[in-house]
């Protein structure tokens, strides 16, 4: 079930040069530009619609999509964010499938522009998001599902020390195929002092 209440707008999170904040309608133009510039970098991992009706990301205005994403806050089902580096938008981080009740879990998905890849931006951003989910929203479990061929994304969960929990066969439709995904997760007990503190070696 959803969280059971609206989610308060996320206060901006940061660690060094990396930031995570709620997506804004004004982010449409920079996101569209990044999506166009990163087509070959991102397209192997992007979800598509089985009907073939998928719109190429960046080819149309994202403003309606952003407004739709922000409705997740009121519904208590998600927190749509952007990742920033030195204040500039460099990708998206999506907190989705937020559940309350006895489950209290969420999923995280992300993409970052190739021109800043390899700088630890996504790893830090995910750590910030996980700490927010555990410490602010009071969730218990966070999951990230990744295609086993996506080595760059797998490095993120490996650096964060997330637990491998198995393979989901034919899980998400991507590029005309139903693709397997590997599931990685953390529970609140895994990082009692916070994931960012563990990542940076400042936990007790």
TrEMBL record:
Pfam families linked: Acetyltransf_3
Keyword Transferase: yes
Gene3D superfamilies reported for this sequence: 3.40.630.30
Gene Ontology MF terms in the entry: protein-N-terminal-alanine acetyltransferase activity
KW rRNA-binding (keyword) present: no
Record keywords, A-Z: Acyltransferase, Transferase
Gene Ontology cellular-component annotations: cytoplasm
N-acetyltransferase domain sequence ranges: 18-189
Family: Belongs to the acetyltransferase family. RimJ subfamily.
The protein's name: GNAT family N-acetyltransferase
Organism name: Leucobacter ruminantium
């Amino acid at each position: 079930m959803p969280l059971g209440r609206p989610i308060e707008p996320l206060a901006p999170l940061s660690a060094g040069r990396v930031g995570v904040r709620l997506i804004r309608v004004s982010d449409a133009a920079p996101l569209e530009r990044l999506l166009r510039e990163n087509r070959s970098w991102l397209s192997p991992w992007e979800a598509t619609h089985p009907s073939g009706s998928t719109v190429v990301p960046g080819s149309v205005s994202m403003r309606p999509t952003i407004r739709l994403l922000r409705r997740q806050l009121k519904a208590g089902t998600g927190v749509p964010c952007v990742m920033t580096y030195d204040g500039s938008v460099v990708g998206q981080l999506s907190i989705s499938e937020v559940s309350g009740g006895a489950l209290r879990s969420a999923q995280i998905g992300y993409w970052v522009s190739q021109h800043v890849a390899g700088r630890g931006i996504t790893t830090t951003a995910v750590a910030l998001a996980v700490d927010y989910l555990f410490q602010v929203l009071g969730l218990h479990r966070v999951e990230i599902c990744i295609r086993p061929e996506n080595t760059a994304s797998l490095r993120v969960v490996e650096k964060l020390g997330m637990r491998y929990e198995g393979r989901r066969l034919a899980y998400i439709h991507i590029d005309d195929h139903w693709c397997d995904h590997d599931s990685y997760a953390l529970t609140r007990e895994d990082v009692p002092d916070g994931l960012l503190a563990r990542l940076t070696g400042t936990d007790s």
